[in-house]
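input
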Amino acid sequence: MIDIHTFIERATGGMEPDRNSMFRPSMIYDLLHDPFKVWCEFHAPKDQAVDEVSRYDEIKMRRGVEYENAWVAEHCPGFQKIEPEYGFQALRNSIHAMMEGLPAIHAPQLWLLSDGIYGKADVLVRDDGASSDLGNFHYRVLEIKRSGSLKEYQVLQAAFYNRILGRLQGYTPESFTVVLRDGEEEILNSEVDSKIDEMLNRFRRIMDGVVRGIAHYGNCFGVPTVGGEVMFEPCYSANPLVNALALGIARQEELFFAKARGAGNPVIYVGARTGRDGIHGASLLASAEFTEESQQKRPNVQVGDPFMEKLLLEACLEAMQTGAVVAIQDMGAAGLTCSTCEMASRGGMGIEIELAKVPQRETGMTPYEIMLSESQERMLLVAERGREREVLGVFAKWGLDAVEIGRVTDDGLLRVRHHGEVVAEIPAHPLAEEGPVYQRPVVAPAPREGKRLVEFADARTDLRVLPPGAQGKHRDAPLQENFQRLLASPAIASKRWVWEQ
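output
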């Protein structure tokens, strides 16, 4: 027979629950509907933490607890409610009740700290249909909800508790039950188990965060962030949009432009090697919604290397000092396609390149892949003919690839060769400047006349939805207090703590 210390070790793994880093199934609703709220809970400075629980939420939660207590009292004879409500002693009492084989356990603590998960389930009910490490019985999860219909977050919460329970008692039940106001739903564990892993991955991405990723690149690259703006919209929760603007001061006579000139001048590729990791990066991330099909493209998303970028920055600055650089442009969206046609178009010239000379880190890449790859830390420059070695020598000094892949022409065409064969030939200017423009439909918003208005009531009644004409009812409401609460909401409050990281 396994003793209580072994069960406790399974639950804790020698760790303590940490609200600043661990996942709780009660967070699933916000994880699905308001990921930023979850992010704020872990990343916002504690002196800016805001209790967003409104009076309405408090009433709803209290009624939910009352409903749960009444249901358990009626349907679970011989149950034991775990006291205290939280903490290690609550966990110990929960395990002790399970080892005694009680018919039902109300509000048990379920921890799996080695996986970074812990929480409090509604009810565990004894089932003698299969044995577990507890004995010739096991427990099943029962979640009690006051709603009339089954919600996704309710299923996922129960599924998480079922997983923790299975690891704890040494047997995972094949199903769990969600009790609703008008009935109950039994859900097979196999139907939602993969969704649990998806939710954990989403939580970990939020924990690491878009902010941390951008801060890491900027800090390593050596460019300070001096300002920022943050806005929140549910449609961006799985596909964050980041616009970055770099500002600097330079002498006018030392500026370089992405404007090719001088027929016969060499076109030089510098920086990181080209791979498949960036193909369709911009078209996937900026122009499309994430679907099952687009999720399969995610491995193609480019991965930045700020240390490589720092080397490239210093090498480019040194190359410019030689006076041998005529034009230079980064390879951003659409990679080589964009940089070649745009430089040629701006200068009223053409460019011809040989893709077999492009440094590649993967074998068997097609011309299509090489031209559209958005691998990071790459630049394309035009040098003065006869001074190629000066430029190539600078990049060799910094340990970077630098290869002459083509030349400037005077025919206005972007000509792409692959092992000598012409695989693409198109006028550069129309490709760069005359692409189709999507005219989005614009419709004026419908008038709001006759619709109900939302107004702050007093602090006791919180927000109320008032019909037209009733707005004056709360003229004496504490406006300053309500205004402060409004300013404290994440959408309005200062975002300095986000962009200063």
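quick obs: The longest strand covers residues 401-409.
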